[in-house]
Amino acid sequence: MSESDMKYLCRTCKKKCDDIPKHMMSVHNFSKTVVESQLKANPNCYNNSFEIIE
Ligand SMILES: [Zn+2]
């Protein structure tokens, strides 16, 4: 995966990623269950935590 595929910049750890749920799980050690239930409760819940890279 190349750098240009990275679409989001995490404001917490300043790392780039292309998949927010995956980033929360692999970098921030969120469990899949937690990520899924948070997104179900509010699909935009991570929007403030990530910057979209144009
Ligand atoms: Zn992060």
Helix and strand arrangement:
Blueprint lengths: L7 E3 L5 E2 L2 H7 L5 H10 L8 E3 L2
Antiparallel strand pairs: 1-2, 1-3
Concise description?
With 54 residues, the protein is an alpha+beta fold. It has helices spanning 20-26, 32-41, and strands at 8-10, 16-17, 50-52.
Pairing-aware structural class of the strands and helices? alpha+beta
- The sequence of SSEs as H and E is EEHHE
The level of helicity is 25-40%
- The quaternary organization reads as single chain
Number of domains: 1
What can you tell me about this protein's structure?
By secondary structure, the protein is an alpha+beta fold. It has one domain (3-52). Helices cover 31% and strands 15% of the residues. The chain has two helices and three strands. It has helices at 20-26, 32-41; strands at residues 8-10, 16-17, 50-52. A three-stranded antiparallel beta sheet has the order 2-1-3, with no helix packed on it. A hairpin with a 5-residue loop joins strand 1 (8-10) and strand 2 (16-17). The longest helix is centred in the last third of the chain and has 10 residues, at 32-41. The radius of gyration is 11 Å and the shape is globular. It starts with 7 loop residues before the first strand and ends with a strand. The mean pLDDT is 93.
